[in-house]
Design a protein that fits this description.
Number of helices: 12
Family: Belongs to the G-protein coupled receptor 1 family.
Radius of gyration: 21 Å
Helix content: over 70%
Order of helices and strands: HEHHEHHHHHHHHH
Structural class: mainly alpha
Distance between the termini: 69 Å
Strand order of the largest sheet: 1-2
Membrane topology: Multi-pass membrane protein
Protein name: Olfactory receptor
GO molecular function, one term: G protein-coupled receptor activity
Shape: globular
InterPro entries: GPCR_Rhodpsn, GPCR_Rhodpsn_7TM, Olfact_rcpt, OR51/52/56-like
Number of strands: 2
Largest sheet: 2 strands, antiparallel
Length: 314
């Protein structure tokens, strides 16, 4: 019985997993992941720098974009050390508290990204449906309040979910099936009843990412309704074109998330490396693709980025 109690203490060590069955190729597998991390970190940092330094980008739409880049940076950094540590040094061990911390920040930045995408959808709705009052509705102070609310909301919703893991006992294998701490992964190793944890975790995700997705969809229904009421085809096209980048960001956030959920629930017969690769790309695709989408599709961002890169070359 004393040994059983020790498994609930902070001295417990989990073992992370790289790509099951392909351990001999971890060094080679790390090359594309390194490229993805470099792209994510440099791309989002560049967009943040452009928005901060270019006065022409001091507008609500770009403030929200800076929030998106910040969450993408946080999401990338949250998994960087453990993922590359496994691929390069086979450093698989992670303490219980470190695991909880990583899990919390991964979930927090995921929920924050969902919330930012919702705020951006609201921004596009106001800009299209009520352009004359756009600047008075989305003032700098209101945008700051939205940003603070996003952080507080994520923290309040996720703290109980992560804190409740401390009540669990782990008397089975301590081997996790991902290269980072994943909430369902940790619960599977417990020999304690996890129904409360499952309920709290499901409630947290439904009330954040689930609700956000419904509200984003509702926003676009209203946007489409407003755009179709515009008489001029030119103006309709121009109005809808301002949403293209945001639609791309929403798609690359929700599609991998949905794919991961489906694989975990219905793909139990799939090879273990399929689960791992989808789980890794689910966290990396949005941070990598968002800067590319906004740089390609948003003229002002593209100009600002080119201006910064050109001035550095000079």
């Amino acid at each position: 019985m004393p040994n059983f109690q020790n498994t609930t203490s902070t001295s417990i060590i989990f073992l992370l997993t790289g790509v099951p069955g392909l351990e001999a190729f971890h060094t080679w597998i790390s090359i594309p992941f390194c490229f993805l991390y470099i792209t994510a970190l440099s791309g989002n940092s560049l967009i943040l720098f452009a928005i901060v330094t270019q006065p022409s980008l001091h507008e609500p739409m770009y403030y929200f974009l800076s929030m998106l880049s910040t969450t993408d940076l946080g999401l990338s950094i949250s998994t960087l050390v453990t993922m590359l540590g496994i691929f390069w040094f086979n450093a698989r061990e992670i303490s219980f508290n470190a695991c909880l911390s990583q899990m919390f920040f991964i979930k927090l930045f995921t929920v924050m990204e969902s919330s930012v995408l919702l705020a951006m959808a609201f921004d596009r709705f106001v800009a299209i449906s009520n352009p004359l009052r756009y600047a008075t509705i989305l003032t700098d102070s209101r945008i700051a309040q939205i940003g603070v609310t996003i952080v507080i909301r994520g923290t309040l919703m996720l703290t109980p979910m992560v804190a409740l893991l401390k009540r669990l006992s782990f008397c089975r294998s301590h081997v996790l099936h991902h290269s980072y701490c994943f909430h369902p992964d940790v619960m599977k190793l417990s020999c304690t009843d996890t129904r409360i944890n499952n309920a709290v975790g499901l409630t947290a995700m439904i009330s954040t990412v689930g609700v956000d997705s419904i509200l984003i969809l509702l926003s676009y229904i209203l946007i489409i309704k407003t755009v179709l009421s515009i008489a001029s085809p030119e103006e309709r096209k121009k109005a809808f074109s301002t949403c293209i980048s945001h639609i791309g960001a929403v798609a690359i956030f929700y599609f991998p998330l949905i794919s991961l959920s489906f694989v975990h629930r219905f793909g139990k017969r799939a090879p273990a490396y399929v689960h791992t690769m989808i789980a890794n790309t689910y966290l990396l695709i949005p941070p990598v693709m968002n800067p590319i989408i906004y740089s390609v599709k948003t003229k002002q961002i593209r100009r600002a980025v080119i201006k910064i890169l050109y001035s550095k070359d000079m």
